[in-house]
């Protein structure tokens, strides 16, 4: 039997012989090969097709002086096939890019959803372990807050300033009724306390810090996701581009008119292919500078999303600020008691009967599950990997015509090729460049006017580029616009400061060292806890008895609520 290498060599020889033999079509005697290929390619019946070439058929595009195997009906079918072929190679060429963006957009959304659930669980565990009496009453507010975070991130028209303030408004009555002036009060009195929160500021500047951190981290992440979805839209649009009549006729002539002369094995010359495809994709090539800027702007925003601009850092440390807020109010309890009495009057108290939250080690009883974070799989690392891959496609639209001809459509170097009229050794016409302006004098395709669909996509790219650049933090100042869906302007200097709670390594993770005692008892005795300020700026909480040392991250995976409290208490 003949081996594989001999078989391949034989096939190549036959192909070359067929091509060389087909350089002259005057001797074409039969249309059998044309009929077979037509039936196979177009899945159409051979009934009514010519058995032999005929002179002077009524063709519109594939006009030749020689007898032809095509009929007018076949030419119309070839026209449809040429357009379908072009759509197919466009979709094939963009499939890897489209998959890259769509896969990562889905992965980023899934990761953000996980982070939101994780941050919600951390906050719930804080209440469950440390503030048990108010835990169940706080559950609804915690859930509502993180639901709003998710809605905003994924494009809903909600206002971060409103849901941050709403959370702290709802938190104050709980803190007042359980820590400052314990006892049950009427709904009317609790509502008065809630309404008084913004006037008396029981939580100090912490709500403002939360609002600043949420604003600086949520909006860039929201914009990043919106930009990825627009990238998918751009590719979907260009994959299904509508071609002009001039382009359709040129594609037919390039790909199928050779069949009418029985030259079924021929492929277009490289220069010929470039003229046709560059003409057909001239409007698409105008996307190139905007696509390059789109990728560059995504990269700049991704690079800037660290520290307090990193949503992972902000969400996973939110519970620490909530704890700081509660303890701030507890420390100022006497002053707040007097202010509330002045605004709302003295309440009629009954002993509080609030149900307590039981903390189960499995975290499953109340739907609380601790997620183990892999340091190598942070959101920032995923963004970096994605941007590195996306950067390879910066010139995708500028070089698309060349890629299609080189990889899919044109004949190889040195082989006989089709020039639109016959098989030749090389294409002799002038080859034009990419883009609309370069098409002046294109011998194969007349390009006129502009494409409204492409213009619309360019406008969308310009808009999202402005959003991306506007959401990239600058070294000195970054301004947010958050209107309905949040309208707030907040100039912020630098990336991070002590007030934001991100001192330490600069990696975006809070490095607070804490000494942890044995499993925390049902009721934490605040008097047993004291804070030791260290010279390096970190803080250590020392409870009675010997303990172990852990970072905030490992604490969250163990006894988070027991010791994640009280940074800055004394």
What sequence of helices (H) and strands (E) makes up the elements? HHHHHHHHHHHHHHHHHEEHEEEEHH
Residue fraction in strands:
under 5%
Q: Helix fraction?
A: 40-55%
- Mean pLDDT reading: 76
Task: Give unreliable regions as ranges.
Answer: 1-26, 359-373, 474-570
Strand order of the largest sheet: 1-2
- How many separate helices? 20
Estimate the global geometry from the Cα principal axes.
rod-shaped
Strand tally: 6
Q: What's the story with the biggest beta sheet?
A: 2 strands, antiparallel
Radius of gyration: 35 Å
Distance between the termini: 90 Å
Structural class: mainly alpha
Describe the 3D structure.
With 570 residues, this protein is mostly helical. It has 20 helices and six strands. It has helices at residues 4-21, 32-42, 72-130, 132-153, 160-180, 187-200, 206-239, 245-255, 257-260, 270-280, 282-285, 288-304, 311-316, 318-331, 333-344, 379-390, 400-409, 452-470, 552-556, 560-563; strands at 417-418, 423-424, 514-516, 530-533, 539-542, 548-550. The strands form three sheets. Strands 1-2 form a two-stranded antiparallel sheet. Strands 3-6 form a two-stranded antiparallel ribbon. It has a two-stranded antiparallel ribbon with strand order 4-5. α6 packs across α15 and α12 packs antiparallel against α16 (379-390). It is rod-shaped and about 110 Å long. The protein starts with a helix and ends in a 7-residue tail after the last helix.
């Amino acid at each position: 039997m003949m081996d594989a290498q001999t078989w391949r060599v034989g096939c190549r020889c036959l192909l070359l012989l067929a091509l060389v033999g087909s350089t002259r079509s005057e001797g074409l005697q039969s249309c059998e090969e044309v009929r077979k290929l037509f039936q196979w390619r177009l899945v159409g019946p051979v009934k009514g097709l010519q058995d032999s070439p005929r002179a002077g058929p009524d063709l519109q595009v594939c006009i030749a002086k020689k007898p032809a195997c095509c009929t007018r009906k076949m030419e119309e079918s070839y026209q449809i096939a040429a357009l379908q072929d072009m759509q197919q190679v466009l979709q094939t060429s963009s499939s890897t890019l489209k998959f890259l963006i769509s896969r990562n957009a889905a992965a980023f959304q899934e990761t953000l959803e996980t982070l939101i659930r994780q941050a919600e669980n951390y906050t719930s565990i804080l209440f469950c372990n440390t503030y048990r009496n108010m835990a169940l009453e706080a559950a609804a507010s915690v859930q509502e807050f993180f639901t709003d975070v998710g809605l905003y991130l994924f494009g809903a028209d909600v206002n971060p300033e409103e849901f941050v303030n709403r959370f702290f408004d709802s938190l104050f009555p709980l803190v007042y009724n359980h820590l400052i002036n314990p006892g049950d009060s009427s709904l009317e009195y609790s509502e008065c306390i809630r309404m008084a929160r913004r006037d008396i500021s029981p939580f100090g500047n912490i709500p403002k810090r939360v609002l600043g951190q949420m604003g600086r981290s949520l909006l860039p992440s929201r914009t990043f996701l919106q930009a990825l979805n627009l990238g998918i839209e751009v590719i979907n649009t260009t994959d299904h581009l509508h071609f002009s009549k001039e382009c359709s006729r040129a594609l037919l002539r390039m790909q199928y008119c050779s069949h009418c002369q029985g030259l079924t094995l021929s492929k277009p010359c490289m220069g010929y292919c470039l003229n046709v495809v560059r003409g057909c994709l001239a409007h698409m090539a105008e996307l190139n500078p905007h696509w390059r800027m789109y990728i560059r702007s995504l990269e700049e925003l991704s690079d800037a999303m660290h520290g307090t601009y990193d949503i992972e850092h902000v969400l996973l440390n939110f519970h620490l600020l909530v704890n700081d807020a509660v303890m701030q109010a507890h420390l100022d309890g006497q002053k707040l008691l007097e202010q509330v009495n002045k605004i709302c009057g003295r309440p009629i108290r009954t002993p509080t009967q609030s149900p307590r939250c039981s903390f189960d080690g499995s975290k499953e009883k109340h739907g609380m599950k601790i997620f183990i974070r892999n340091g190598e799989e942070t959101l920032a690392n995923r963004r970096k990997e994605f941007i590195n891959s996306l950067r390879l496609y910066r010139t995708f639209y500028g070089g698309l015509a060349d890629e299609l001809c080189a990889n899919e459509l044109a004949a190889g170097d040195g082989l006989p090729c089709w020039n639109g009229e016959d098989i030749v050794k090389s294409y002799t016409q002038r080859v034009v460049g990419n883009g609309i302006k370069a098409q002046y004098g294109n011998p194969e395709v007349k390009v006129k006017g502009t494409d409204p669909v492409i213009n619309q996509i360019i406008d969308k790219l310009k808009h999202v580029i402005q959003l991306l650049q506007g959401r990239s933090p600058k070294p000195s100042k970054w301004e947010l616009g958050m209107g309905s869906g949040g309208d707030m302007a907040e100039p912020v200097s630098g990336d991070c400061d002590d007030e934001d709670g991100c001192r330490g390594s600069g990696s975006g993770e809070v490095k607070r060292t804490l000494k942890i005692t044995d499993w925390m008892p049902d009721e934490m005795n605040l008097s047993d806890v004291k804070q030791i300020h260290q010279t390096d700026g970190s803080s250590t909480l020392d409870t009675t008895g010997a303990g172990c040392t852990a970072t905030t991250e490992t604490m969250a995976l163990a006894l988070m609520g027991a010791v994640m409290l009280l940074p800055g208490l004394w």
